[in-house]
Design brief:
The protein is mostly helical. The protein has helices at 3-27, 31-57, 68-79.
């Protein structure tokens, strides 16, 4: 497995962890449990961002900007709901 595949795999795992921590935060029954999950979520989000930035700097994670026309079409689509 090369570096790019390794980073992609790690990023997917961290995204999954973020999802689990978010749901743990939302569903927590006590303030202490909520705080523990929220703290873990924030740490995982920072880790995810660091991985993303490293991948993007190497050209391994390409993003594109939405065109103004696409944004307006989407806004209009959901404005009536």
């Amino acid at each position: 497995m090369d570096d790019r595949n390794t980073m992609e795999s790690i990023l997917l795992e961290v995204k999954g962890v973020c999802d689990l921590y978010m749901h743990g935060t939302i569903e927590s029954a006590t303030p202490d449990v909520h705080c523990a999950f929220d703290s873990a979520l924030q740490d995982a989000l920072c880790m995810q961002n660091e991985i993303y930035e490293k991948m993007q700097s190497r050209g391994w994670y390409q993003t594109s900007s939405a065109q103004p026309q696409q944004i307006e079409q989407t806004r209009q689509q959901y404005a009536g709901k």
